[in-house]
Automatic annotation (TrEMBL):
Signal peptide: none annotated. This is LacI family transcriptional regulator. Residues 6-60 form the HTH lacI-type domain. The keyword Ligase does not apply. It comes from Methylobacterium terricola.
Length: 336
């Protein structure tokens, strides 16, 4: 029969302490003296106890664990971010802890991760960083980098230049002769959505053609579909000749609703989006969009994070990267 796997009781007996002390030490409880934690780490390592990484963390002061806080899985953009985070974090010899920021405040997820897993740093790409999260991170000495979000609290951020990309889309629509534009935006508390909305609106106003219609697409396919139905139901004289949806997922909904209503995409109405998701290249959508530099955003975000894991005294920094305009059939040939 194979040798039994060591348990927390085995480690406790070998270290000469209670099992509860082992548990608290492996969670990084600072009430346990550094000497005792170091001894427990050594014993756990020698016995091959399962939380080996935690034991190693007690000796090195680092867990090698990076938390990634993501938004709802219904938006495929977060899947793109996650794939790239998994790949690059693994290449750098670290491990990944995924924290889903769905219903409930993101600070609770952050606090749980910090207390339970002792993450060395955290990437957040979900919502604006609440001040409480900054306080929790500061108190625990954990650096945070926002990706695709601008932080309200003091921390680092890596973002796409949302305003510049939105201006590019506005220029494209004006060059093709479009003058009556609908903006499918979102009321969600997202710095990304606000920047795209403001960048596009300011540019179109300066050109003398402010958006004639503003609809809330709720950052979802369903919200975009409802916006598309509303546009299709308008009398021809009032209908916009172009639509800018501030995310690809909303643009897909707009496209499907317009097409079902018999509207000719790219001819009657041009539709453009923002994110550059792979699905947008499918023939059914053929969506003109601005592709976010996800690979570079994650890479620069990890650079900032690792630098602050080594030196927590470094100043905060925000990096803005430009996306790539991809012109496809949905923006149409009108006026060219």
């Amino acid at each position: 029969m194979s040798e039994k796997r060591p348990t927390i009781v085995t480690v406790a007996e070998a270290a000469g302490v209670a099992a509860s002390t082992i548990s608290r030490a492996l969670k990084g409880d600072k009430r346990i003296s550094p000497e005792t934690r170091a001894r427990i780490a050594r014993v756990a390592q020698e016995l091959g106890y399962t939380p080996y990484a935690s034991a190693r963390a007690l000796s090195s002061g680092q867990s090698g664990l990076v938390g990634v806080v993501l938004g709802p899985g219904t938006n495929p953009f977060y899947a793109e971010l996650l794939y790239e985070a998994v790949r690059q974090i693994g290449e750098r010899g670290m491990r990944l802890l995924i924290i889903h920021a769905g219903p409930g405040p993101v600070e609770n997820s952050m606090a749980d991760a910090l207390l339970q897993y002792q993450v060395d740093g955290c990437l957040i790409s979900s919502v604006d960083l609440p001040s409480h999260v900054g306080a929790v991170c500061t108190a625990n000495g954990v650096p945070v980098v926002m990706v695709n979000r601008v932080a309200q609290a003091d921390t680092c951020a890596v973002v796409c230049d949302n305003a510049f990309g939105s201006v590019q889309l506005g220029e494209l629509l004006l060059r093709s002769g479009r003058r009556r534009t609908a903006l499918v935006r979102t009321s969600a508390a997202s710095s990304t959505a606000r920047e795209r909305d403001a960048g596009f609106t300011t540019f179109m106003q300066s050109a003398g053609y402010p958006p004639s219609l503003r609809l809330d697409g709720r950052s979802t396919y369903e919200g975009g579909f409802e916006a598309g139905r509303h546009i299709a139901a308008l009398p021809a004289a009032e209908r916009p000749d172009s639509v800018y949806a501030v995310s690809d997922i909303m643009a897909w909904g707009v496209l499907d609703a317009l097409r079902l209503a018999g509207v000719r995409i790219g001819q009657d109405i041009a539709v453009v989006g923002f994110d550059g998701l792979p699905q947008s290249a499918r023939p059914i959508y053929d969506l003109t969009t601005v592709e976010q530099p996800v690979v570079a955003m994650i890479g620069r975000g990890l650079d900032l994070l690792q630098a602050r894991m080594r030196d927590k005294g470094l100043p905060d920094e925000t990096i803005s990267l430009r996306g790539r305009l991809i012109e496809r059939g949905s923006s149409g040939p009108k006026g060219r």
